[in-house]
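Proteins fold reproducibly. Take a sample protein:
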Amino acid sequence: MNATVPETSPADDRWALPDLASRALGGAVLAANDESFAEKENLIRPYPVVHAAHTFGAKGQVYDGWETRRRRTDGHDWAIVRLGVPGVISGIVVDTAYFTGNYPPRISVDACRADGHPAVADLTGWRPIVPITDAKGDSRNEYDVDDPARYTHVRLNLHPDGGVARLRVHGTPVPDPAGFADLPLDLAALVNGAAVTGASNAFYSNPVGAIMPGLPASQADGWETARRRTPGHEWLDIRLAGRGVIRVAELDTTHLKHNAPGWASIDAADGTDTFTLFERTALQPDTPHRFVLGNDRPATAVRLNIFPDGGMARIRLYGRLTPDALRRLEARFRA
């Protein structure tokens, strides 16, 4: 009997939601009014902040972040970020790591929705999602956002100036379904609205890596478990982008040469009904596997089982949304 595949996260943890602004998802810092000391592009790097004291360049101490000059006039500094994946924003992190005497004492964040491919000058309709609020230096400053609107861009404001290492925009992707109609798509892709809702073990890496876009860059770019020392197996739960029929599964173990799973299977759920989508099958290390499925049953969620443990760089599940699912996505996009 198949294990139950949950369709929602066990807890509402906004900080576990994907960073919609991440460069790894296609985010970009489009503009900033000043970047005298450190470049604006550092704001959305997907990597941890690094710092080496007493490393000076032509602009002063080298910082892994964005830093403006000391403001001598009224006003404030700002940077505009295009989200890699538009969506509903649940939380903002303004990380001032290693900025101790040069951090902004207050910040605010605005957001707007501008579908298509607008220029910076065409961005209008900015709305505050984080009011002017205190910030601390060398700290992870977290700000809750309670706004159901879909946004495509955010503007980080420093009051009046200073440095920020990273900006994280945690939220739920809401893609434009216009590109989904009558086309096969990856129903497990984060950029299409899918989400990781649970994992049996995430010792080495965040399991959301398995549904990120692009090719895996290294062994760390994906989902990898600890070595299992007890009976059983590891698993990963994914809520699909919408109810759809999966016809092709791709299980990619690229870069996993000595820690790939020996075997894998996939269970699927359509509401409360569960079924086997993909029977237990042997996998090879460091290999992108592609399996054509004889499946015509729709699903809303899946559980990837790996035996007994190991890593999965990427999982792709190609299929088509049902007409009702497409209509629901269109209604959410227009909301």
